[in-house]
Amino acid sequence: MPSILRLPHAGALAAAVSLLLAAALPPAQAVGTDFGPLPPHNPYAGPPGTATMHGDTGSSDATPLPGPGAGRLTSKRVALQSACPTVLVGADTYPVALCTPMLTRIPTVHLLDPATGASLARLPLAKGSLLGGVYAYLDHADRLVVVDGDKNLLRVAHRRNAAGDWQLYVDRSLSLAAAIPGDDSVTGLAPDWRGRVWFATGGGVVGTADEATGAVRTLALPPGERVDNSLSTAPEGTAVTTSHATYLLTAAPDGTPTVRWRHAYDRGPARKPGQLSWGTGSTPTFLGPTTGTDYVAVVDNASPTVHLLVHRTDTGAQVCSTPVLLAGGSGSENSPIGAGRSVFVASTYGYPYPALPEGAGESVPPSADFAGGLTRVDVRADGSGCDLKWDTAVRSSAVPRLSTADGLIHTVLRGSLLPGSDATSLLDPYSYAQIDPETGSVVRRQHLGASSLYDTLQMVGSIAPGGVVYQGTITGVVRIAAG
Question: Based on the structure, what is the number of domains in the chain?
Fold first, then answer.
């Protein structure tokens, strides 16, 4: 990793910045907005809201669990010397984090103490691509389902050993190597409603794995189409967005993926600054007012202004193409939030990543300041189109998460050492924030810390039972709770 990660003497200055920025806005009150249903719970996944990086297998980025509440907040940085983009929580309330150490880049699973966030056990996995395969999920038995660098589909469980200590272990393994080209690797995976594991590779292969029979079936998407984000599953099928198009796929009787519909999108002339690949940054989001999966939403990469694209799940018909992220930089690496008829899109344009995936290519322009941005778009009740409800320059440095229980959007904001500036630095301050989804206004802010130690790097925060937020950072996890 670049020298951005090595800050041997940053503590004193960070503490001074913390004192200057510790003032918080008044505690938030629950908004109580009724958004409608979230995607149905997948019986082969863990608890709703905490089973996947994006909350559920429909990738709604919403949760039925409430955040920390309106009282006093505490935060603690758990140093794991790793970037931790995935923190999931099982029915037993134990968080499981998939992290990548900064030096070795060997993906490592951590079992965390729900009371403190400290690591109780760790298990290194075979090394693969950048961040070791960010996308994993918890199954209905609280096992982490992940593909390692050797292309093995693993189910990683946890238990206490004879001495009473916690341990992580591989409970089940199935090789996918014969189905995936030698230089390719899995980028995302999720279960369907029959218990099969769907997966997608960077090179554009989509497949299913049936662990009961050992059968692995694949479909190669058109040449040149990459999959740089994860996929999403719903009872109607599996949605995947490549560097060129969005697909809905179903499985033939033997499990072979088949294309139900495909729609190309405007991928723009090149990768934008603040994105990790050329094309959409979206994992497809299922949402809808009737079933929770009536629509599929992604954000394109059009230049200069990106659009929210909403398609009907059943036919693929486009409901709308709405310009978004008008107040700041117009580009996004994040999956949208979807709940009922509402979609929220966060900007990552100009976000300074310390490393990029191999083959990401040059961005156009080469760099940009991080202005931020957050947009709400509502699908019309009759499905005839979409309307922009609000657009604001909120500087979210994490993937926002909507709680339908407390009616708030939870995220982390990146500040600046220079008031009024969009420039970023190694000593920027970071704050946990709650946003009113009706207006886009920040209604509460709690300072977490300053410097790259707290950089949330556009990673997701998970809300656990008890209102605890686990936010991945470039160096570990921050645990935010009432108290």
Answer: 1
